[in-house]
Amino acid sequence: MNILFSFRYLIFVTVLAAFSTTAQAEEKNEAYAHGNQLVQESCTKCHSDNVYQRKDHFVKSFNALSTQVRRCKDNIGLSWFDNDTNAVIHYLNTKYYKF
Ligand code: HEC
Least buried of 6, 48, 53, 79, by fewest C-beta within 10 Å? Predict the structure, then answer.
């Protein structure tokens, strides 16, 4: 392999890596926006966002958050797709819980 070739290869790989990081970031932003919208639409009837921020909130882990989101949404009979549920979990975790 000559030096010029390896250099080009390095640039190619770097550009690829940069693209995939941006794509992942965009996917996360979309999930955040989608989750936010679903929460505002469906999750403010019984409790406000304060419930996620109070000092003694009972959700203490990512798994517990995931379970509680499903419990609350099943309680009110929402038939969300998995990607809706995951978006809500991502939104609540990013904004409030930070596990
Ligand atoms: C039918 C009423 C109701 C609706 C609608 C509802 N919840 Fe809940 N949720 C509750 C109750 C009751 C609790 C427990 C509150 C408490 O302990 O004071 C709770 C608690 C939670 C918690 C845990 C808070 C903590 O202490 O960490 C999360 C997370 C949560 N809800 C998410 C959601 C999401 C997401 C939605 C929308 C799909 C939703 N809830 C809609 C009744 C509801």
Answer: 79
